[in-house]
């Protein structure tokens, strides 16, 4: 009986990883479409203070990055592939900046839980650098994960909610950012990883 329960626990086992690659709406939007990712949650990591608000993080004064906590099934997608994809869905060569978003809150970062996760991140970074996917040097920081604060509810599934909203609701959301920044970003991701998307 105990052996059977252990097998069931293994079958249900999920893993988590916290990454930051600029605006969390963009990162969350692409990972939520990826096969094997159970959920992607927007939040804050790597700063000072407890339970920071979006407004506080936006100032850049708390030191937190807009981060995304990924819960995934390692039997469907490996930690290595999660990281490989991470280095293709944002620009890891621009320090504290993604496009027009500037500040330490938009830094490229991987928040590792243990030495093994840090070593894996270093391996993938070396692989990406060797492959010369980017012209410039990677500036992604590797930071120990101390805590992940889930962002306010209205940030969760922001782009998905935007696409489902009626015209008037869209106008109350960040419509320009969604249409001109996130939408092309998601479209490019869908094209590049068509075979890895959820049905």
Describe the structure.
The protein is an alpha+beta fold. The protein has one domain: Peptide methionine sulphoxide reductase MsrA (Peptide Methionine Sulfoxide Reductase, Chain A), CATH 3.30.1060. It is 40% helix and 20% strand. It is built from eight helices and eight strands, in the order αβαβαβαβββαββααα. The chain has helices at 2-12, 24-31, 54-58, 79-86, 115-131, 158-164, 167-172, 175-192; strands at 15-21, 37-45, 65-72, 97-98, 101-102, 108-112, 141-144, 148-150. The strands form two sheets. A six-stranded mixed beta sheet has the order 7-6-1-3-2-8, covered by helices on one side. A two-stranded antiparallel ribbon has the order 4-5. Strand 4 (97-98) and strand 5 form a beta hairpin. Helix 2 (24-31) packs parallel to helix 8 (175-192) and helix 4 (79-86) packs across helix 5. It starts with a helix and ends in a 7-residue tail after the last helix. The mean pLDDT is 94.
Q: Strands, helices and their partners?
A:
Layout: H1 2-12, E1 15-21, H2 24-31, E2 37-45, H3 54-58, E3 65-72, H4 79-86, E4 97-98, E5 101-102, E6 108-112, H5 115-131, E7 141-144, E8 148-150, H6 158-164, H7 167-172, H8 175-192
Parallel strand pairs: 6-7
Antiparallel strand pairs: 1-3, 1-6, 2-3, 2-8, 4-5
Helix pairs in contact: 2-8, 4-5
How would you spell out the order of helices and strands?
HEHEHEHEEEHEEHHH
Distance between the termini: 36 Å
CATH topology: Peptide Methionine Sulfoxide Reductase, Chain A
Oligomerization category of the chains in this entry = single chain
Helical content (DSSP H or I, runs of 4+): 40-55%
Uncertain ranges: none
């Amino acid at each position: 009986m105990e052996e059977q329960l252990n097998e069931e626990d293994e079958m249900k086992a999920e893993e988590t990883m916290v990454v930051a690659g600029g605006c969390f709406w963009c990162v969350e939007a692409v990972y939520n479409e990826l096969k094997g990712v159970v959920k992607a949650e927007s939040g804050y990591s790597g700063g000072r203070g407890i339970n920071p608000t979006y407004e506080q993080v936006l100032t850049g004064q708390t030191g937190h990055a807009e981060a995304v906590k990924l819960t995934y099934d390692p039997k469907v997608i490996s930690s290595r592939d999660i990281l490989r994809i991470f280095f293709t869905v944002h620009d890891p060569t621009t320090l504290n900046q993604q496009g027009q978003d500037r500040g330490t809150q938009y830094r490229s970062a991987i928040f590792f839980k243990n030495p093994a996760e840090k070593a894996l991140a270093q391996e993938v970074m070396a692989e990406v650098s060797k492959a010369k996917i980017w012209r410039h040097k990677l500036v992604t920081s590797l930071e120990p994960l101390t805590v992940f604060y889930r962002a306010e509810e209205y940030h969760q599934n922001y782009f998905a909610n935007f696409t489902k909203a009626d015209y008037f609701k869209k106008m109350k959301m960040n419509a320009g950012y969604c249409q001109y920044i996130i939408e092309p970003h998601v479209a490019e991701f869908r094209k590049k990883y068509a075979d890895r998307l959820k049905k």
